Amino acid sequence: MHSNTSPSHRRTFSPTKTAIAALLALSYPVHVLSAETLLPRIDVIAGGEEAVTRQPGSVAIVGPADLERIQPLSTEDALRSVPGIHIKGEEESAVVANIGIRGLSAADYKSLILEDGVPVAPGLFVGNSRYYNPRIQRMEEIEVLKGAAALRYGPSTIGGVINYKTKEPIDGVAISGRVGSHNYREATLEAGGKSPSGEAKAGVFYTRAKSDGFQGKGFDMEDLMLKGGMALGNNQWIGAKFTHYENDANISYRGLFLNEFKAGAKYNPAPDDWFLTARKSLDLNHQWDISPDMTLNTLLYWSEMNRDYWRFSVNNAASTAAGRWVYTDVVNGNNRAFERVGLDSRLTFNHKGFGINNKAEFGIRIMQEEMVDQNIAATRANPRSGTLGNDRVDSAVSYALFGENRFDVTDKLSITPGLRIEHYEQEHEDRKNSARDGKSANTEYLPGIGATYWLNPGAQLYGSVYKAFSPPLNSQSIVTGVDQQLDAERSINIEAGVRGQAGKLRYELTAFQMNFDNQITPAISGGVANANAGSTLHRGMEAALGYGWNNGFSLDANLTWIPTADYRENRGGGINKGNRLPYSPKLLANVSLAYASGPLQAALSGRHVGTQYGDGDNSSPIVKPAGANDVWKGKLPSYYTFDLTGAYDVGKQLKLTAAIKNLTDKRYIAGLRQGIYAGPERSLEVGAKYSF
After folding, report:
1. Whether this model's pTM surpasses 0.85
2. Which residues of 103-130 are buried (b: 16+ CB within 10 A; e: fewer)?
3. What does the pLDDT look like over 638-649, one tens digit per residue?
4. CA quadruple 76, 81, 82, 83: dihedral positive or negative?
5. Which end of the chain is less congested by CB atoms within 10 angstroms, N or C?
6. Which helix (H) or strand (E) element contains residue 546?
7. Domains (ranges, CATH) in the chain?
C-alpha cells in the first residue's frame, strides 16, 4: 500500500490559451458566409416543420419560445414537459442527469444524449453514466426523436435520442442574470460578431452560477463556450466549438430518513460529501455542398472529463438508532477520468432511383473511449488524498456504419428502410492485478423500417419498427479477466401515430411498444458470471395538443400513459415477472396556459407524476435496508406541482423575467437512493437581460 493523490484533480484553466486554440481554425482566407447560414453541425432533426413531417416517428422540439416560457435552471427542467420523458430529480440544479423515456427507468441509461450531435455521457461503452449534464444557458433548442429514424445514431437508442443544440454567435453583446431563493446567483455573458463582409462569425458564451441550494446542496459552476465558423470557397464551411465546464457540488447519494422527510427537514443529509466535475471538449465541423443534391458533413470531436466523488462513511447502527446519518472520519474517493475522441461523417443526397424521388443518407462513426477508475482511502483530516485502492483502466474502440433511404412512393406515402452495424472492442486493465486484465468484442446488426402517409393536408400517419441496442459496459463484459461472452442488450421497438393541425389546433398521438430483452443480469450468488437473461415489456401512448386563441391565450398539454412497463420473468432478489420497473410512472401529464400580448408574456404550468416504485421488487412502504450503502426501497406517492413564469420587454434591449417554481410549495418524494430525495420547495427567481 502506498500514499497517492487522486490523478483526476482539478486542472488550472487558462481562458486566453483555450480561446486561441479553439479559434485558430478561423484564421484562414475565406469567402462570404451568408448571414442566414448556420454554423455547420450534425442535427438530429434539421429543416423545421418540413423535417418533422419526414420523420417516421414521434418528434418533440423544445424551441426558444418554450425555453423562454419555462425559464429552466437545467436541461432537466426543460425536458420535464416533453411527452414520454420522466425525470428522477436529485437536486434542483441537475448536476447529474436521470432521464427515462417511455417506461425505461429514469435511474438507468438506455437513451442517447447528444450536444450538437456529439455524445455527452462520459463513456458510452466504458461507463455510460451521466456525470456531465450540459448547461441550459447556452442552449437554443432541444430535439427529441423516437422511432426508426434513431438508427442514424447510436449506441443506446432504446428510448430514443435527445440532442441539445447550442446557440449561434450573436452580433453584439448581451448580459443577463438571475437571482433567487437559496441565494441563487447567475450571470451570463454573450458576445460575438462577424467580419465586415460577413465572411466569418464567432462568439463567446460564459455563465457563472452559485447557490446555497435547496437543503443546503450548494454548487459553484462555471461554463464557457467559444464558437465560430466561416466559409471556404462557395460551397464549404467549417466550424469550431470549444467548451469548458467546472462544478463543485455539495451533493451525495445520501438522502433523508423517512422521519426526517415527514418532519419537513430542509438540511443537507450529507454536508461534507462533494461531487466535483470538470470537462473540456472540442468539436470541429466541416460541411461540403458537393452539388445541390449532395452534402457531406464531417465532425471530429474530443472531450476529457474528471469526476471526483468524495464521500464520508457512516456508522450504520448509530444512524439507524438516531434516525439520521451519523458519519465517521473515513472518506472514500471514487474518482474517474474519461477521454473520448471520435469521427462522424455523413453523406446525404437526393436521387431518382426506381423513377421516384429518394433521399439517402450513409455514414460512418469511429470512436475511442477510456476511463481511469480509482478509489482513494482518505480521512477527515486529509479528505482529498490517501491510499490508492482500486486502479483500473477501461477502454473501448467502436465502429459504426449506417445507411437509410427514403422512398417517396407517392405524393402521400414515403417508406424509409435502414440498417446500422455497430462493432465494439472492449479492454480491461487492472493496474494492481494484471491477472484481472481481459478483452471482449461484439458486433450488432440493427435493421429498421418506417413510413409516413398523408391522410390529408392537415393530418399525417407515421409508424416504424426497428431494433435498438445498448452495449454492456467493460465492468459487465469482463469480470476478473474473463470475457463473459455477453451480447448487447436489445429491444424491438414498434410505434404508430398521427400528427397534424386543424385550424388553430395542433396534435400528435402515438402508441408504442418496446420489447426489451437480452438484458444483462449479474450473478445472483457466488460466481463471477454475468448473463443475458432479463427482459421487460413497455406499452403505452403519448398524446399532445396545443391551441391558440385570438386574444393572446394559448393552451399546451400532453399526457403519457404507460400501463405496461414490467419485468417478463423472475430475476431473483424479489424481482418477479409482472413487477413494474423502478422510476416508471404509469401516468405523466403536463399542461400550460400561456398569455402573450405586446411586451408581456406569462404562463401557468402544471405537472402530474403518477405513483412509481424505487425498486424492482415493488416493495411498499418506503424502508431503509440493512446496509448503509444499499438502495432504499418503497413506493413513491404521486404528486403535482405548478410553476408561474412571466417576462416583460421594457424595450428592444431590456427584458425582465420572473418565476415562482412549485407555486403551492408541494412536499413530495422525487426519488430514493441511500435515503429520500425530497423535491425542491417553492422558490422565486427574478432576472434581466440587456442587449447592446
Report:
1. yes
2. bbbbbbbbbbbbbbbbbbbbbbbbbbbb
3. 999 999 999 999
4. positive
5. N
6. strand 531-548
7. 3-691 (2.40.170.20)
